[in-house]
Amino acid sequence: MNISIHTFLFALLANLFFVQSEVFARQSNDVVSRHAGAGRFPLAADVATALVVDDEVEKSVLIATENFQKDVHAVTGQSPDLLEKEDLAGHSHVVVIGVVGKSQIINALEKSGKLDVSMIKGQWEVFHRQVVQQPFPGIDEALVIAGSDPRGAVFGVYELSEQIGVSPWNWWADVPVKPLEELYISTEPFTSAEPSVKYRGVFLNDEDWGLQPWAAKTFEPEIGDIGPKTYAKIFELLLRLKANFIWPAMHPSTKAFFHYPGNAEMAKNYGVVIGTSHAEPMLRNNVDEWDHDVLGDFNYTTNRDQVYNYWDQRVEESQGIDAVYTVGMRGVHDSGMEGAGSTEEAAQLLEKVIQDQRGMLEKHIASDAAVVPQAFTAYKEVLGIYDAGLDLPDDITLVWPDDNYGYIRRLSDADERQRAGGSGVYYHASYWGRPHDYLWLSSTHPALIREEMMKAYRLDARDIWVLNVGDIKPLEYNIQLFMDMAYAVRPFEQPAYVKDHLTAWYKGIFGEQGKTIAEVKWKYYQLAFERRPEFMGWSQTEPTTPVFESAYSPFVAGDEVEKRIGAYQAMEEELQEIKSTMDEEHFPAFYQLAFYPVRGASLMNQKFLYRQKALSYQKEGRLSAADYAALSHAAYDEIVEETAFYNQQLLDGKWNHMMDHAPRRLPVYQDPEIALAKRKPTKHSVGISLERGAMARDKLPVFNNATKRKYFFDLFLKNESEASWEVVSKPDYILLNQSSGVLAPTGQKETRIWVEVDWSKVAPSGSKVNGEIHLEVDGQAESVLVELNNMKEAKGVKFVNDNGQVIIYAENYSHKNTHDQLSWQLIEGLGHSGAVMGTSPLKQASAKGDFEAQASLIYEFYMDERTDKVSIDFQCLPSHPLTKENGLRLGYSVNGGAVQVLDFETHGRSEEWKQNVLRNAAIKTAEGISLKKGLNTLKVFWVDPGLLLDVISVKTGSSLKEGYGLLPETKK
């Protein structure tokens, strides 16, 4: 295997960064001790150590200090005094908190030579923590937390809060603190690094079914809306997560952020930066604030003065507020801009709009608009306008959106990366819109978030990261992950780290039980990656369709319906066991962060998969069809019941109205209709159903000595009468899990017989063998054909043809070739198969030709006979070309033939794109391929950076019937 020096050094450095981050994590855990000793500062011993701030301390720093005061009390039961410098008499130890250059106390310590903060001056949101000996007369020691700016000081305070045991999610997810009688802090100095991303925050969106009704009816009824009390809690959460930025809630259910004067004042007090979404220029909320009856059309061509004044008033009002101004113009609410007849006209009009908006900034905020933070989000149709030649001022930050389903549409090319304003990302972990909403549960895989945001970071999108979080709950972990990456990206360079991060987060809350919870949640995200719970109805919206039958089949792949139900139920059982031993203090957090989302997803899957069994089994005349219909309806009832507990009983209704199991009341959330036709009496009371074989033949799949799989057939009642069954005879090489039984209409209405082969009793190798299982079923003679392919051993080859198909997960290549700096990189934890192969490095230009010379993956597999008219499915993740200069292609060659190219790029919201994001897979098929008997070789070539290859499926005309889920590899 050829590995370039560049690839080797990159891997070495990445591993070094990972090790350094792990060392930092251990050091963080060693910061706090419950015991006194050398090198430890007493934060709470006999009494809590007093906190000292300047008399004119910044409001944000004071609020953080007061919260820290409460945090110490929550942990120790002792509440430290909050003092000014003049009140220090009688205190031997103090904690000093301030901002470099603004705090008189910090300045005095620096001037005396007892504190060196030169390393953080002029830095963005950095803090330095150090113990100073004899800082003032009569004071033995001071623990100093100095910020380079107010938020730096705030982050320094909240980091210490987290280290003493107060989670950022203490209030928002009811994560309890661990009581300690005494607290001691390491005297080892510590200086934080600048955050990896400058502005990091959330977009409160689609709040109609959770955050807004909860705030209006439960938390802030005096306002009846999301008001300053609610925003104070949100701002505190953001700062505890070391985030600094917000796009406020803006749906019709909610009044504009500036409608309540206390909202903006609260943002100023907390030091949180305010922005607005892609559809809301200049801090305006068009949905609530643009009154068409009074102001006319939102059209800059025909109604410029009204629109101009509307924006100008808000800019004037926003003086003194830390803000990033969204520039440009769309429709009133997430729609195209009015007043332009073509894309080119829209680009010209937008240039004028932005010029006028910058004039407002220069009139009210700063004499030079270039020093005022501004963002331009290329969302939906705006990307086309931008590409039509929009002349965007260089200092404006380009914000690239994802496609609403977690795949970033585009990032900056080499020229755009030189822009002074840099770039950023607007990313969805919750979404309302076509092809289908996902507003209920957290269903975006952490590995996908890591991959896409790390891709953005590597292409220098480091100025703004905004996460659409919907109602905040139940996206707690995804928010934590996103903000941790945005603040300190380095450990996430390693794909495997995201799973470690998930485990560490849950263990930090639940101790050793957290490891099991994390394992369950990883499986939960993996199952959601295959199909989100909200997509299980196979319905769509905009326009809204009814639910359809599931593509999961109970007749293939070992009954993929039952396997998926079983996977969810196994997770439920693990959590039920933990729930039964969970202490009362941790239960609320456990319920919110693990139990409800897993159970909700499990029940949603049961609702539709049992429905599918009912419909499928009805067609066979099974008596049990009605039972599965009842299970489907019961799952719906349990979702309603579980959600009622979340809202009304958990913590005596603290979160009442926060959780809605049926946002937008879409068909997928309703009790499903299951129309079962009236059964007709049949001559035979028992039916036989076989796991589906190849083509349309009603037979079991062929048993293969290389893969050694087992298959099933079912016996089921068709009438309301008891029936017995028995295996009369079979070859001795056929193994069954049962050989007789009784079916009863009031008991077991069906049974499954698993068929395996004892290959040691089958000879000779290289032959095809047919056998039969003979049964007597309710007095009738029945038989099941068992066909064996006892193929010759394929030495040195891992993958073989089994039932007309070869399934290979991309990571399991036979050989890999690099070329120059090009390579295929393993990305663990991602994709349907659990790992994908990605083309890197990302900044490399696309290949222009000579594909045979590019980096390649080589897959070898064995065919037991020559086969023509073969197709090969290449399944990738439905990502998009990295930049406008790139495509999204791969090359392939079979048995040394000419290289062919497949293009995975989709355009707009085409039907292909819709299906891709609903299934998290982009599939392109190569057809008309001939394979020889014996060893065959498939080469996959590097063509464009950023492509993510997941599964390769070779299919002949006799391939097995397919369902929906991931098929196992056909390997020995």
TrEMBL record:
Chain ranges of the Gylcosyl hydrolase 115 C-terminal domain: 799-964
Entry keyword set: Hydrolase
Gene Ontology biological process: carbohydrate metabolic process
Transmembrane annotation, as ranges: none
Protein name as annotated: Gylcosyl hydrolase 115 C-terminal domain-containing protein
Alphabetical list of InterPro entries matching this protein: GH115, GH115_C, GH115_sf, Hex-like_dom2
GO molecular function: hydrolase activity
Organism (species): Echinicola strongylocentroti
Lineage of producing organism: Bacteria, Pseudomonadati, Bacteroidota, Cytophagia, Cytophagales
